[in-house]
Fold alcohol dehydrogenase.
Amino acid sequence: MAAYQLLGWGEGVERVEVPVQMPRGREVLVEVHAVGLCHSDLFVMGCEEGVLPYDLPLTLGHEVAGRVLAVGEDADGTLVGEAGVVHGVWSCGECHNCLRGLDNYCVALEGRVGCGLGHDGGLAHYVLLPDGRHFVPAQDVPPTSLAPLADAGLTAYHAIRQHGDALVADSVALVIGVGGLGHLAVQILRATTSSRVVAVDARPEACALAATLGAHHTATSVGEALAQLAAGTGVTGVDVVLDFVGSDVTMRLGADALTPGGRLVVVGGARGSIAVGKGMTLPLGWQVSAPFWGSRDDLVAVVELAEKGLLNPVVEVVPFGAVPEAYTRLRDGGITGRLVAVR
Ligand code: NAD
Ligand code: ZN
């Protein structure tokens, strides 16, 4: 079968031919129908040797939708023929975090997270899952919409759910970066919370997308967005900042936007940092967190939102043969929503 693999650190993906492995034991073989291309793939490709504990060659692709083709002798046979999406965190299922529903923080992962991130992923015609519980069935959602839910939707949902207690009544949520993750965050905030949603992206077209998806205020800078908020509502602080960029600049802007008791949630991987401490430059009661991906239960909830028509990824579909060029475009910026490759 064809697969896009990372053959050397600091390089792009290359199309190669690899054997299809038939499932054994609890394994499940999924025929891949659509794969989302994530900014995190660019991060992995750009790492120097030794940064990530991954063996090369590695097939990328961690946003995978498809159909179960075959299962091993110890797996759930009723999965065969099911359409759905892969939960990419290949957790152990047995550690104390897995047992309390925090499987995205499984203690056994040791840096090799799962699908396309440490283990061969779904940028291929087939992907082998170590266990059937990593597949979430879905009804009547096309694969091009399902694929981005696996990470962009799931990560945004997990970050928002963790702060659900603060996203109530007339609270304000600020989304910084309305790309693959951020455009789904805007939809999830509108579908699951009563918060006023303020969305900021450096690109006017991304702001326009956020407005289409229900953001109450949009602007190309945090300052302009907060001015709009104050003019429209009299509110001068934000309860939850969801930073999908994660640079020094956006984290500082996000922190400065917080109301007392507000929370800075850093999702983006631009390797920014911020100093925290009592009596420093954050408001009273500050919380700073860096959520990672999402649990299987979160993915089930995300799929349910999509099944109900409440979550609709905006995608640009590219053919499987055009994946390398698509990554170049993602790196250059200017994508609206999510790029999804189909076979
Ligand atoms: P993307 O490229 O699709 O979107 C990023 C958006 O941010 C773009 O619209 C861009 O215009 C905007 N942007 C960039 N710099 C900006 C700035 N200074 N101010 C305002 N807007 C700015 O990327 P994506 O796939 O949505 O991923 C977003 C980030 O989240 C990446 O860093 C990715 O690695 C990270 N990520 C984290 C997790 C996690 O579990 N924490 C999971 C997936 C992705
Ligand atoms: Zn575990």
The mean pLDDT is 97. The two ends are 12 Å apart (CA to CA). The chain is about 30% helix and 25% strand.
